[in-house]
Amino acid sequence: MEELVKVLTDPVSNKILQLIRVNAEMTIADILAANIGIPRATIYRKMEKIEKVGAVYVSSTNKIRGQIEKVYRIKDIYIASKGDHKEDMRNVTVSLMGLIEQYETYFRKENADVAKDKLFLFNYNISLDDEDFSAMLKEIYQIVDKYQNKQGTGDEKLRNLYMISAPGGEV
Question: Is this model's pTM higher than 0.70 or not?
């Protein structure tokens, strides 16, 4: 589980995964053709790890000049508790550290502009029973899916949208 969390929070792997998600399915050749600023060898190495941890699956294969080319699709992954509080805490920590690393990389750029790039962090304190909370999450997932599967025009920026349900304390 820890390896999966590391892959999902790695900025380079995340960029590749988001590209596959936006395009529904892709080959490594498609990823390379998208020119996302990741060196060829890195894409091959990251895809090997991404496949190994089960974040993608091979939906089909193509035979090209005697070689088998894999077509990848994103596997829906939910990192859920197995009842081990130490492992849960480790997974949360690894995830948050990955997010912090993404921000550190962003702020190292001289042209980092939070307002222009529409970066934000917000916190809503809401009181809901489990049924209403599940219904709200379902609606949020539907909205995100609508835009995640939207075909672009070429002017898009790849954006990471994280959603965290954190402990709220006593109400």
Answer: no
